Amino acid sequence: MNNSRVYDMSPPQLPLATLIGRELRNEKIEKPLVRHGHAGLAKKGEDYFLIKPDCERIPGNSASSFSVFAIFDGHNGVSAAIFTKENLLNHVMSAIPQGIGREEWLHALPRALVAGFVKTDIDFQRRGMYLIILSIRETSGTTVTFVVVDGLTVTVASVGDSRCILDTQGGVVSLLTVDHRLEENAEERERVTASGGEVGRLNVCGGTEVGPLRCWPGGLCLSRSIGDMDVGEFIVPIPHVKQVKLPTTGGRLIIASDGIWDALSSEIAAQSCRGLPAELAAKLVVKEALRSRGLKDDTTCVVVDIIPPDHFVAPPSPKKKQNMLTSLIFGKKNQNSMNKLTNKLSSVGVVEELFEEGSAMLAERLGPDVPFKPSSGLMRCAVCQVDQPSEGLSVNAGLFFSPTSKPWEGPFLCADCRIKKDAMEGKRPSHPKATA
């Protein structure tokens, strides 16, 4: 690839003053209010959460603000959950090109989330290898449900079986995540076995199989997570990502660990707290889950209300009783008015899907863009953001003379991230297995 093509694919670098001016002009469109609440009960103490309502795309400019909410449900220890909570947001933000406006930023966010999840997993497993050298066994892992709220646009990235649902006016409940449980996800079972793993239940005396489906080695019930060094690398950190635009009436997000969802359906969770402020709503969801199933797992819930000012459409008031003559004269007119109001409510209650992708193939998720540093002539790794010579590092590079190999096309990966990609696809391991 020559340099002129690379320049064309790079995002324009705008002066900071230009960006701030653009944000200030957009500020005329009032941003919705974001209110949040949290509640939880600990059984093992492996659930963690993140609430950051004051993030800024342009440092120092409140007009560029966005909010982040996340839940990390750890297993086999807390190290992976804590590490992910402390590092994931920074990795995601570093994967978004600098000097771009809000719309470009939102467009780049799904890809950046994929890069940030994979980068976090690589760093944690690298830390785990260091601990192995010190004869310390590191086998913890974590699910992640990571939510970015920017105005009425909500972007959700998830691995594992924590969940995020959206409740909008009219009682319409939408699931914004996909559960990565082997028991329930046939597509993930096929991917794991195709990558070299085995899927089966625990065997007890007499050959009886018990419990949920698990992948072997490791015995994990999930097909995607961050961490889990004792499990094959077909258990990937590549998230399902969904981006939606809420209706002008806003909506409520309920983000929770499986301690909630094993007890409550999405609809019941939403119904249990409607009409309540976010803080009380989170407590009610946890209380309902406890009442339904008892405390059998860590139970964590974050409720986020997105409330646009001056955009609420009041529901129609109940009809008054009319005599027959009045009904005959005005009935048709009233019915037409009701139909118009119903249509208006329907139009403002539509959730617009902007993006959704759940593939576990890294090349598909990173897309064709090629981050490039003109001053150095180096290609930047799409995952870890390290500058490297471009030759031979494309994510599309394969066997020499292979018809599917396109080493000149981006995105580009550094050597370490290329090894990780191959390991996730079952081509080769990136590190020896952790052993006791």
Automatic annotation (TrEMBL):
Belongs to the PP2C family. It catalyses: O-phospho-L-seryl-[protein] + H2O = L-seryl-[protein] + phosphate; O-phospho-L-threonyl-[protein] + H2O = L-threonyl-[protein] + phosphate. Pfam families: PP2C. Residues 28-306 form the PPM-type phosphatase domain. Keywords: Hydrolase, Magnesium, Manganese, Metal-binding, Protein phosphatase. One of its GO terms (molecular function) is protein serine/threonine phosphatase activity. InterPro entries: PP2C, PPM-type-like_dom_sf, PPM-type_phosphatase-like_dom. This is protein-serine/threonine phosphatase. Its cofactor is Mg(2+); Mn(2+). SUPFAM superfamilies: PP2C-like. Its EC number is 3.1.3.16. CDD domains: PP2Cc. It is an enzyme of class 3 (hydrolase).
